[in-house]
Amino acid sequence: MDRLKMHSVNKVDENIKRIAELFPNTLTEVIKGYRADGSAIIEHAIDFDLLRQELSNVVVEGPEERYQFTWPDKKKSILLANAPVAKTLRPCREESVDFDTTENLYIEGDNLDALKLLQETYLGKVKMIYIDPPYNTGNDFVYEDNFAQSTEEYLANSGQFDEDGNRLVQNTESNGRFHTDWLNMMYPRLKLAKDLLTDDGVIFISIDDNEVENLKKICNEIFGESNFEGHIHWRRRHNQPNDKTKMIGLVAEHILAYTKNNRSLRASGVGKIDITGEFSNPDNDPRGDWASKPWKVGSDQSGSRYIITTPSGIQLDEEWMGEESTFKALLADGRIIFPRGGNGMPRKKYYRFEREEEGQCATNWWTHEMFGHNQGANDCLTGLFGVKNVFSNPKPIELIRGLIQIANVKHNDIVFDFFSGAGTTAHAVMKINSEDRCSRKFIMVQLPENLDETILSADSNTKKSIKVAMDFLDSINKPHLITEIGKERIRRAGRKIIDEAGLSSQELDTGFRVLKVDSTNMRDVYYNPAEYKQDQLTLFADNIKPDRTPEDLLFQVMLDLGVLLSSKIMEIVIGGKKVFSVADGYLMACFDNDVTDAVVKEIAQKQPHYAVFRDSSLASDSVAANFEQIFQTYSPTTVRKVL
Asked: Among 114, 162, 158, which residue's Cα sits nearest to residue 449?
């Protein structure tokens, strides 16, 4: 049996393999250290001088000036994205909704850790990503990653710290790293996010004026300029601003759109938004409501010239939108009208049902009337919670719904938001599913920010909103964490959507599995046995931490083997032992002690793709000796693993 590695994928190793496949001559070996017995630890690496030469059609002798976008610590942010983490996702049934049947996920924890943990399982499986990251205003908080500053600098900047050593820091201009800190926060997360997208997947990122230029540059670098799909300007305010501190009032925000591969996106098709325009049926046309457009070409267009005679007898010698034969066919079909009692220029009818079938292409200007605004989003939360201003400036569900439409997210596709905040993206997914009866799925990730700590450094307006949120959480007996706002919003929105649509939870998935980022389930000796003396190893006869449940172990195994975390999980009993059957027997896992030959045999007879046991599970040495032979007899193709 092979041992599971039980940590996230090492992106450096993966990148080295990819480069070596393209340029095998660049693969080399380096000494990374020495073992206790003096032998060298050898690892593969890439000869960068050779690689540079392979990518150049002239002799490379030294550094040359070239177009590039860089900032302090950029290389460290790349290193951070590639480094593995020995962490896991632990299920939390009591905070979930429909845990056993839902295919939606709500992940609580640092999104950098979550992105790394999801790399193998969700590689190339996410159709759409939407994120609304912290804006770099000088008052908002950004994620603080370990490399960015020394401990002394960090504590001086923050004034806030928690048991993990301060995950958040106020990014004021006075810290001298105003743009650098924000870029170092965003770069590794976007780099990891790209790998999760399907080939035709799309990412949308909301941003304000302060970092839109920098965001576009790092997205051009990560996704490629050719995969830039557009820059949406969304009017987020429905009223006229009266800000005396600014020359130009802010009524719009930016949304940058990038695809993983523009050719794949074009092949799969771009989605359409809801149709606009005024349709009516004043002539009782049996084909239903219609609108019209000119048959005469515009001033900057060319068409076919011929004479059209109006019902009143006026002859019009103009250039028209189509050939004369086409016009006569439309006229005979009742699709040409002449306004002003038959004296006006001809117009062609188009019908609502035709536009609904064709859809309407999106533009880069999104109005608040069609895609919602901040006040409407606040009113939505007020309606759900019964309290005003629980969350500052949430996005409207109409906005996310529109993005889902143009990304062409369809049945069983995954929508991912790793700055999920108030849970608007999850709400929008459930809402659009209720409208067209599709089964889109969502994955939300949110850092469990402690509002008691956040309020200490907030400005006066933000303090008021945080205090409202804390009072609301007290009223429902929840801890003062921003994740509790998001989870409660999804619960309430799901119930409301089901009620309004007249559906049941079996017909519409409004549940979610709560998973929490935590330290690995394995004791330290599992990863670093060389650090322990021989007489200490008896302390670790069982390499699992004592506070971890069998379900904790199951989800870490699912992560390690690439089994979707939304997979159906059944608990069955075999020979008195609890056995997990995941995805209809694709994975079978038993973590009980004293597993006998009979239990191993019955599991093998079910012929799972994966079978996983604890290292200490087998009842005796004879069971361990027979283990491989049992599987070889009954299910030789099963991949056997231990942890």
From this structure: 162
Residues of the chain with pLDDT under 50: 141, 146-167, 174, 176, 527, 532-541
Instruction: Reduce the DSSP state of residue 551 to 3 states and report it.
Output: helix
- Using CB atoms within 10 Å of the CB of residue 388, give its burial: 0 to 12 exposed, 13 to 18 middle, 19+ buried: exposed
Phi-psi region at 372: left, alpha or beta (left = phi > 0; alpha = psi -120 to 50)? left
Whose tokens are 């975390």? That residue is 565
543-574 b/e (C-beta count within 10 Å ≥ 16 → b): bbbeebebbbbbbbbbbbbebbbbeebeeeeb
Tokens linked to 351: 């019908």
User: Which helix or strand (DSSP H or E) is residue 372 part of?
Assistant: none
Q: Residue 401 belongs to what H/E stretch? A: helix 397-406
For the four alpha carbons of 611, 613, 618 and 622, in that order, the dihedral sign comes to positive
The answer to whether 588 and 608 are in contact (CB under 8 A) is: yes
Enumerate residues 6+ apart whose C-beta is below 8 A from 250. Answer: 208, 209, 237, 241, 243
C-alpha distance from residue 316 to each of 11, 104, 246, 320, 337 (Å):
69, 61, 53, 10, 14
Strands 27-34 and 40-46: antiparallel
Smallest CA-to-CA distance from 272 within 199, 357, 373, 364 is with 357
* pLDDT tens digits, one per residue of 137-196: 655 545 655 433 333 443 333 333 333 444 455 555 545 456 788 898 999 999 999 999
- How many other CB atoms are there within 10 angstroms of residue 426's CB atom? 28
Which residues lie below 8 Å from residue 349, measured CB to CB, with a gap of 6+?
285, 290, 291, 292, 334, 335, 336, 337
Dihedral pair phi/psi, residue 327, rounded to 5°:
-60, -45
Per-residue confidence (pLDDT) for residue 151, from 0 to 100: 35
629: exposed, middle or buried (Cβ count in 10 Å: 0-12, 13-18, 19+): exposed
The vertex-82 CA angle with 134 and 120, nearest 5°, equals 90
Q: What is the model's pLDDT at position 358? A: 65
Alpha helices in 509-584 (DSSP H): 524-527, 550-561
The tens digit of pLDDT for each residue in 433-487 reads: 999 999 999 999 999 999 998 888 777 878 888 999 999 999 999 999 999 999 9
pLDDT value, residue 141: 47
